[in-house]
Amino acid sequence: MSRVLNGNTNISERTRDKVMEIVKQYNYVPNTLAKGLASSRTYTVGFCYDYTEKQAVSNPFFQMVLQGVEDVVYRRNFLFLMMSMQRDQLDASSFAKVVTERRVDGVLVPTQLFTEAVHSLLLREGMPFVVVGEPMFAQPGIHWVDIDNVQAAMALTRRLIDRGLGQIGIVYDEADKTKDKFVLDRIEGYRRAMGEAGLQAKEATLERLRGMSGNGCGGASQALIFSTESLLLDWLDEADEHPPADSIHLATFDRSPYHRHIKYGVESIEIELETMGIEAADMLFALIEKTELAQPYIKIPAK
DNA sequence: TATCTCTCAACCGACATGTG
DNA sequence: CACATGTCGGTTGAGAGATA
């Protein structure tokens, strides 16, 4: 039965037809638990999210990544399990439970949650894993997938420079900068593009920007790049009181569904989050199936 | 004799049940 | 009480039988 259903070639047409007839007659569907018992597989992969971040799951960018992951998972006839994790209470989280009880064959961990404690737990349990986003700490043997944020920021900055804008500032959130590698990379990409063009880089936190008059880094910027779209939205929330000057070009990375509610023209660069999900899931399946990988990480260029 | 196809049975792991 | 055995339902290796 299993040889027929799993496409084994050494089966005669006659036997195959006979088996398929019985499958049809009894509406036979293999029991995944029994299959897992025989193959030491769960046919499930996990994705963890931050329990303390209430908007983690509803975040549209997170959902775009998930969409890519799910496409791959369902194509492989696997199931997908969402697990919560509390960074400061790892042992009590459902993530730790799922990993230690081997309820999944592999896990995807967002870089914000990938701490050294998480890494050692996964190594100890021999659980295949892929980090979604470049990890904040480097260790050999860690597989990860990320957007090439340096390249994306360079491309966006160059686009503004090509428009003849010479005074371009970048705005970031201090807390994001310490926990999100991609924010550091975007700042780095911006600096490089400005440096190449012989222009002076101007950086400010949102807090500092709020305190400035004229809505610019130093009050003289012609364009402002926001390191994340949510930061731009936060800033625009306050725009009723201090609307940005018409002469200021706004720019950020990617577009969430909320983007269409923005009343101002915003330049953005496309970040392929769905592709990131697809690549991460493909990489995880390669690790589960012990397939040789060409490289331990993938950086997806922005368009 | 070589190759193809089929059948049998061990095995997977956790838990329930039986036996001494 | 401790240990042995059975149970679930697939997968898969080994070996037997059929056929060219």
UniProtKB/TrEMBL annotation:
Task: Give every HTH lacI-type domain span.
Answer: 1-39
Q: A Gene Ontology MF term for this entry?
A: transcription cis-regulatory region binding
For whether the record's keyword set contains Oxidoreductase, the answer is no
InterPro entries on file: HTH_LacI, Lambda_DNA-bd_dom_sf, Peripla_BP/Lac1_sug-bd_dom, Peripla_BP_I
* Protein name from the UniProt record: LacI family transcriptional regulator
Keywords in UniProt for this one? DNA-binding, Transcription, Transcription regulation
Instruction: Give the organism the record lists.
Output: Cohnella fermenti
Does the UniProt entry include the keyword Metal-binding? no
Kindly list the organism's lineage: Bacteria, Bacillati, Bacillota, Bacilli, Bacillales
Q: One Pfam family this chain carries?
A: Peripla_BP_1
**Which domain of life, per UniProt?**
Bacteria
